[in-house]
Design brief:
single chain, about 80 residues, alpha+beta, Flavocytochrome B2, Chain A, domain 1, two-stranded antiparallel sheet, 2 helices, about 15% helix, about 25% strand, globular, Cytochrome B5, Cyt_B5-like_heme/steroid_sf, Cyt_B5-like_heme/steroid-bd
Length: about 80
């Protein structure tokens, strides 16, 4: 089965609003963060789901990429 790919426009639909799943892209990989309480309603500390948050994760987050461990991967950003 081929890996699912998303454009930036397609990814934007998965912002956690209106019962949509909550996805974010990090370094080209798209993660499903729907089950994370910190991302309720698709928002977390001023960040919005449905976007590429690579810069935020690596340059502004105190957590770094350890928060990605165990998250379901849903595809790739193209």
């Amino acid at each position: 089965m081929a890996e699912k790919t998303f454009t930036h426009k397609e990814l934007a639909k998965f912002n956690g609003e209106n019962a949509q799943p909550t996805y974010v892209a990090i370094s080209g990989t798209i993660y499903d963060i729907s089950g994370k309480d910190a991302w309720k309603n698709g928002k977390h500390h001023g960040n919005v789901a449905g976007k590429d948050l690579t810069d935020v994760l690596y340059n502004k987050s105190p957590h770094g990429d350890k928060v990605l461990k165990g998250l379901p991967v849903v595809g790739k950003l193209v």
